[in-house]
Amino acid sequence: MTRVLIVDDHPLVARATANEVRMVKREAETRIAHSMEEADRVIAEWEPPDTILLDLRLPDTDGLSGLVHLHKLVPKATIAIISAEDDPNVMRDAFAQGARGYLTKGRDIDQFTEALRKVLDYGFYFPPEVTTPAPATTSLHLTEREEEVVRALALGKVNKQLADMLGVSESTFKTHLRAIYRKLGVRTRVQAAGRARELGLLPVHRRA
């Protein structure tokens, strides 16, 4: 069962979001907190949530401080921002601080639902306003070596050749690949390269 914590100080918005979560993922178990203090209490009394949907503006925290706090408190949780703020710079800052998604409240309901589905199913959603690759890399926590491996995949060579290019053993290269698959939520090299392009980690014009 997927556990989803919704942190929003507006009761109607929080309940509507909880309903939307259950429509997208029927087996989801939801909890609602209207402040960061209440969120801390819910997390302490409940099992660690798999996903946290966080409003940027709360009565006891503002901006990205709540995101940073929750990221430290529940490091394995997928944290997505749900906010009326649609400034791309704010979005990039959120990704740089560990957010895995950013959903704007002003979007069309179908667009919002699809974005929410991606957060719940794949663990990330990057809005079209965010075009630079750096936030995506940071939010996925790829190491410098893993980024090199991702870029190498675009060359289309076999593992042994790519390992030799990077100066590592084939076994080490495969270990990096497994870590990349897990972080990108994919199972094959082709899928990894495709996901990397979607996230801006590879130029779109190249082919794996």
Detailed description of the structure:
This protein has helices spanning 11-24, 36-45, 65-73, 88-96, 109-122, 133-140, 144-153, 159-166, 170-184, 189-198; strands at residues 3-7, 29-33, 51-54, 78-83, 101-104. The protein has 2 domains: 3-132, Response regulator (Rossmann fold), CATH 3.40.50.2300; 142-198, Arc Repressor Mutant, subunit A. Mean pLDDT is 85; it is low at 131-139. It is of the alpha/beta class and 208 residues long. The longest helix has 15 residues, at 170-184. Strands 2-1-3-4-5 form a 5-stranded parallel sheet, with helices on both faces.
What's the gist of this structure?
With 208 residues, the chain is of the alpha/beta class.
The helix tally amounts to 10
**Mean residue pLDDT:** 85
Uncertain segments are: 131-139
CATH topology assignment of the largest domain: Rossmann fold
Question: How many individual domains?
Answer: 2
- The residue fraction in helices comes out at 40-55%
- For the termini, the CA-CA separation is 35 Å
Going by CATH, the homologous superfamily of the largest domain would be Response regulator
**Main pleated-sheet profile:** 5 strands, parallel
Q: Please state the structural category.
A: alpha/beta
> Got a strand count?
5
Strand content: 5-15%
State the strand order across the main sheet.
2-1-3-4-5
User: What would you call the shape?
Assistant: elongated
Order of helices and strands: EHEHEHEHEHHHHHH
